[in-house]
Amino acid sequence: MPIDSDEVSLPRATVQKIISEVLDPEYTFSKEAREIITKSGIEFLMILSSMASEMADNDCKKTIAPEHVIKALTELEYNQFIPFLQQRLYEYKGTQKVKEKRDDKFKKSGLSEEELLRQQEELFRQSRSRLNNNVVMKKIVVIIIAWIHNKIHSYLFYIFAFFI
Amino acid sequence: MDTANANENIDAGKNSNIQNMDIAEEAQINLNLKNKTPKLPISKIKKIAKTDPEYMTTSNLAYIATAITTELFIQSFTERTLSLNQIRTKSKNKRLVYEDLAECVVKYEEFQFLGDVVPRTKNLKSLVKENKVRYTTQQVEEIDD
Q1: Which candidate among A76, A152, B54, B65 keeps its CA 20 to 30 Å from the CA of A84?
Q2: Where are the transmembrane segments (chain B) (predicted)?
Q3: Exposure pattern of B7-46 as b/e (b: 16+ CB <10 Å)?
């Protein structure tokens, strides 16, 4: 089936991720089947939007709200989705609050984006150099211990210890 | 080592630990945010919704709800097709194909609306036999009853 360049579709990789979340790991879909799943998703989306419009209309509202989407699910006999949808909407609203808080924090600090990036880079650099120092310290300690235990003989042991 | 130096080092260690925690915390928060926002891009969802001639203004949160529900649908379709395949075929083939989806659409009422999107395919020979189509080398034509 030729892909109509006028038609909007959903990104393949994203649909694949969504499928992978529920598909047993040993199973795969053929390429054709994946495309059909995408098309089915789009078809569902349109039917849902259309029904949600109707629900908003019935409510004499000019804008579709989430509650209309939920009512639409009942009309379409997809009630089983409703609790999951509500849970995820709740979680989503939570993330928005976290984002707002975080954005406020940045705004209050009065720092420009460049300054913040510079600070972040500085923190990374510090943590990286600390990590390197720790590793070198550990190697030195190992070599000293090896020397104490083996004194003369094991040159090989020193080399081995260095590379641990 | 000087105790003064030692203390300084401990303090520096503490501060850097706090800074490290901030970075780690930040990363964890970002991961949580990612998991809780819908995967499907809202921009595409908007475009698709607008192809409907009867499109109505929709709030952002309603778009989010639509995205989430569409993801739930895709997963539901996948799961049903998988379980149907596992029940019906005794083959150990772990590859799901078009026919498995078509089968699912036929069997479960909630997917009936996809009848035109995923019709069951039949091969040409059997259709000709059933007198449903006639064909020439140029085209295949459905016979109307």
Answers
A1: B54
A2: none
A3: eeeeeeeeeeeebeeeeeeeeeeeeebeebbbbbeeebbb
Looking at CATH, the fold of the domain delimited by A12-92+135-163 is given as Histone, subunit A (1.10.20)
What pTM was estimated for this model as a whole?
0.69
Q: Which of A38-47, A137-146, B45-54, B93-102 has the lowest mean pLDDT?
A: A137-146
Cα–Cα separations (whole angstroms), residue A24 to A12, A21, B83, B98: 19, 8, 10, 18
User: Which residues in B lie closer than 8 A to residue A41 (C-beta atoms)?
Assistant: 70, 73-74, 77
> Domains in chain B, please, with CATH?
2-116 (1.10.20.10)
Mean pLDDT of A12-18: 96
pLDDT recorded at residue A158? 66
DSSP classification of residue B52: S
Chain position carrying tokens 């009309």? A75
| Contact: B117, A9; criterion CB under 8 Å | no
pLDDT on residue A152: 57
B36 and A92 within 8 Å at the Cβ level: the answer is yes
Determine the straight-line distance between the first and last CA of chain B, rounded to whole angstroms.
100
Element (H, E) at B134: strand B133-135
Task: Please report residues of B whose CB lies closer than 8 A to that of A23.
Answer: 78, 82
